[in-house]
């Protein structure tokens, strides 16, 4: 039976910190936090979430990625987060290469089997947060929802909003042979309205409803 504990399984590179083109954080000058990550994680911790870092680090400890090059930036990252009240109960690092095809490598659950065997946390209230499709696959393998960070997903403020603010969101779609209409309203977000009906003046009038009502409105009508 699932308990009340809530866990966020959080990716590192491209999620907590910017990922460089060579995909290795092996020098201090490469370490850069994603915008909004500190405030978002503080919000999550205050809401009762436990944090577990889960990261693939290709070839860590080999000549291509010496342990010492990884250790310094990683220690600094953990120090920065800890200084802001953000502490991880576990840091799980897979060191294999993709070609090794090990179950410990995301989206495999080899590093997380002790969580799968533990009924003391709520799958429904927990999530995987990451920037890649492998993170979303890991979420499915764990039986939790996946939240994607970055250009293909959300920013950290939006993720904290979804996790912590019990968003009052409604989505309605109406499709006929002639038209396709989709409306999404989020009463707890003041994001800029996004309206596209094909009629400029009508778009403007509908946008004013969201803008002056103080809620997020997304509406698209085709046909």
UniProtKB/TrEMBL annotation:
Family: Belongs to the GmhB family.
InterPro entries xrefs: HAD-like_sf (IPR036412), HAD-SF_hydro_IIIA (IPR006549), HAD_sf (IPR023214), Heptose_bisP_phosphatase (IPR004446), HisB_N (IPR005954), Histidinol-phos (IPR006543), IGPD_sf (IPR038494), Ribosomal_Su5_D2-typ_SF (IPR020568)
GO biological process, one term: L-histidine biosynthetic process
Protein name, per record: D,D-heptose 1,7-bisphosphate phosphatase
Localization: Cytoplasm
One annotated GO molecular function: metal ion binding
GO cellular component: cytoplasm
Keyword Iron attached: no
Chain segments annotated as transmembrane: none
Lineage of the species this protein comes from: unclassified sequences, metagenomes, ecological metagenomes
Keywords: Carbohydrate metabolism, Cytoplasm, Hydrolase, Metal-binding
């Amino acid at each position: 039976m699932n308990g009340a504990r809530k866990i966020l399984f959080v990716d590192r590179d491209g999620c907590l910190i910017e990922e460089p083109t060579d995909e290795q954080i092996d020098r201090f000058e490469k370490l850069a936090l994603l915008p909004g990550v500190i405030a978002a994680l503080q919000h999550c911790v205050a809401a009762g979430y436990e944090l577990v870092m889960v990261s693939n680090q290709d070839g860590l400890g080999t000549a291509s990625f010496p342990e010492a090059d990884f250790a310094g930036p990683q220690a600094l990252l953990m120090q920065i987060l800890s200084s802001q009240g953000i502490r991880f109960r576990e840091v799980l690092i897979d060191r294999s290469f993709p070609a090794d095809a090990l179950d410990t490598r995301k989206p495999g659950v080899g590093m997380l089997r002790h969580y799968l065997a533990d009924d003391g946390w709520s799958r429904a209230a927990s999530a995987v947060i990451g920037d890649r499709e492998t993170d979303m696959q890991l979420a499915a393998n764990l039986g939790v929802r996946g939240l994607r960070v970055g250009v293909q997903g959300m920013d950290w403020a939006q993720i904290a909003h979804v996790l912590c603010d019990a968003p009052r969101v409604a989505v309605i779609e109406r499709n006929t042979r002639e038209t396709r209409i989709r409306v999404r309203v989020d009463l707890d977000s003041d994001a800029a309205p996004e309206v596209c009906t094909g009629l400029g003046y009508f778009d403007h009038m509908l946008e004013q409803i969201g803008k002056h009502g103080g809620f997020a409105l997304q509406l698209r009508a085709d046909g």
